[in-house]
Amino acid sequence: MKKYIVSLLALLVMGSIKISAATVVAEPKIDAGDTAWMITATALVLFMSIPALALFYGGLVRRKNVLNIFMQCMIIVAVISIEWIVCGYSMSFGKSEGFFSPFIGGLDGAFLRNIGIHDLSPYFISHSQIAADGTLVGTIPHLVFVMFQCMFAVITPALIIGAFAERINFKGFLLFTVLWSLFVYNPVAHWVWSSDGWLYKLGALDFAGGTVVHINAGIAAIVTAIMLGKRRDYKGHALPPHNITYVVMGAAMLWIGWFGFNAGSGLAADGLAANAFLVTHIAAAAAALTWAILDWFNDGKPTIVGTSTGAVAGLVAITPAAGFVNVGGALAIGVLVSLICFAMVAFVKPKIGYDDSLDAFGVHGIGGITGSILTGLLATPTIQSAYSGAIAGNWHQLLVQLIAVMAVILYSGIVTVVLFKVSDRILGVRVPDKLEAIGLDETQHGETAYTSFD
Amino acid sequence: MKKIEAVIRKSKFEDVKMALYEAGIEWFSYWDITGLGKSKEDQVVRGQIFQSSYIQRRMLSIVVRDINLEKTVNAILDSAWTGDPGDGKIFVSDIEQTYRIRTRESGPEALYNKDSNGI
Predict the structure, then answer these.
(1) Which range among A85-89, A162-166, B114-118 shows the weakest confidence by mean pLDDT?
(2) Distance separating alpha carbons of residues A369 and B61, to the nearest angstrom
(3) What secondary structure letter does DSSP report for A134?
(4) Segments of chain B with pLDDT less than 70
């Protein structure tokens, strides 16, 4: 009932504005339902970094390196959250003047100093209202939007951990992560999600982070994996995971957290969120099942590591598409991404011979590219009427998606090379061979995961 | 008194356990071990099938009276066998002394329960 009144008011307001721009408009209101959901969704996205990703990756490494993975995830949450309020949010979603405007935000919003607790989010998808100054605003507090986006800024560098696991110097890792967030994540988020961003203006579709999060991190992953070199024990095939139950718990928690990631990206509790919720779940289910079947054919037995990996690949691929495709599209995306990622991880990677320890590129990079391109193919106007893909006759969208994918691959690839070199020069990124043999838990943190202490 | 240590396939553990029960063994301890060497075994991770030198086995440790040594060793030899490389090994060594903590009995008597004709 309340909502009807609000929309009636909005209609009245819009009508009055046409008559006279000077008419005083109703005070825009925070929508309690939208806000409650967005705070929940934000917490769910944090849940993906800790503990979900920490468990998923931690289970896949050997027992001497599990705490190092947990620590990397935990410290990224701490460091990048601070980076985000210091300047990250402003660089990603703030405004800048002239030439830089489409590429990166300015530092006007450093320390969130311009945001009051009653301010409404300037970003919205389907729920908006007219503010006192005549601009459109969303229905949730601006600070909730800042926090929601903070969790995305946190999880993106955390995904890269999978590529350089088990051999990176903690100091070098920390420096690289901060530099990468500043100079890769923030600009790319600005390109795609800021209303000034050049890819946003070009019409690139990325509902919840296929390009910004997954391709971005996936490309950084393969670059760092190659630059850092292979683990001393790497013989062209995966090293056996030390705790598969962690892997499964991590994947399951990622699946749950992803509902916040995708269904929260509509920034409202509405039908669009419902669709994102549905397609996220169905794509993950289809991808998990497909990977299990591929395992079955490949080696006679379906493995849980494979099925968990498939679920994650499905979640990655549906991320850019969640607000644009229907359930049929989700099924197609789920099946296709598992086929492609399976081929990548099981056959292509061993042939080429790079050591992407936990397949951060194979799953997030390749899955993100697959999902972003398929979004351009499968987007249907029945979800958001303004957006359609090649299947609905809009071939231009596919071209835009390809441009967005290529732009992020090139930018993330080149800048990651530079930042990783810089981190290596200043602090060193590779641990000495002997310390790698002992394990990073002991040598980087002075702790061991599995003790016999009573 | 002899100590029998046997490295066996995990897949044969149930068979060996039943054979030892039938041979009258009342109690033994076991734990999972990982072997590492030149031998390799097939492993699968995320669709990659490869040969790994980490080999998972189970180790049994049993202390028996001398008269029961042969019977126990034969029980393991028969039940742990598949005929493929990797069936495992049995090691036998001397035990100098045994004490039962509850009764302070020592020697072979401390090894079995007199009421149940154990080993």
Answers:
(1) B114-118
(2) 54
(3) S
(4) 115-119
Euclidean distance between CA atoms B117 and A265, whole angstroms: 72
Given a cut of 70, whether residue A17 has pLDDT beyond it is no
Structure tokens at A101: 């405007």
ipTM for the assembly: 0.81
Write the burial class of residue A377 (CB in 10 Å: 0-12 exposed, 13-18 middle, 19+ buried).
buried
Domain with residue B66: its CATH number is 3.30.70.120
Residues in Cβ contact with A415 at an 8 Å cutoff, skipping those fewer than 6 apart: A183, A184
The helix (H) or strand (E) run that includes residue B33 is strand B29-45
Contact A238 B54 (CB under 8 A): no
Q: B47 and A241: CB-CB below 8 Å?
A: no
First-to-last CA distance in chain A?
A: 60
The residues spanned by each domain of chain A are 1-30, 36-445
- Does A240 sit within 8 Å of B43, measured CB to CB? yes
Which amino acid is residue A23, in one-letter code? T
Domain of B47, in residue numbers: 2-116
- The alpha carbon torsion through B43, B48, B49, B54 (nearest 10 deg) reads -30
Look at the domain A36-445 and name its fold: Ammonium transporter fold (1.10.3430)
Cβ–Cβ under 8 Å, residues A118 and A141: yes
Number of domains in chain B: 1
> How far is CA A156 from each of CA A152, A201, A211, rounded to the nearest angstrom?
6, 23, 11
pLDDT over 90, % of chain A: 91
Q: What percent of chain A lies above the pLDDT cut of 70?
A: 94
pLDDT in tens, A336-381: 999 999 999 999 999 999 999 999 999 999 999 999 999 999 999 9
**Residue A20's pLDDT is what?**
47
Residue A340 forms contact with B (CB below 8 Å): no
Cβ–Cβ gap B44/A299 under 8 Å: yes
List of chain B residues whose C-beta atoms are within 8 Å of the C-beta of residue A301:
44
> What are the residues whose beta carbons fall under 8 Å from the beta carbon of A408, sequence distance 6 or more?
A188, A191, A211, A212, A215, A216, A219
How far apart are alpha carbons B91 and B5 in whole angstroms?
5
Strands A136-137 and B2-8: unpaired
pLDDT (tens digit per residue) in B7-41: 999 999 999 999 999 998 878 999 999 998 888 88
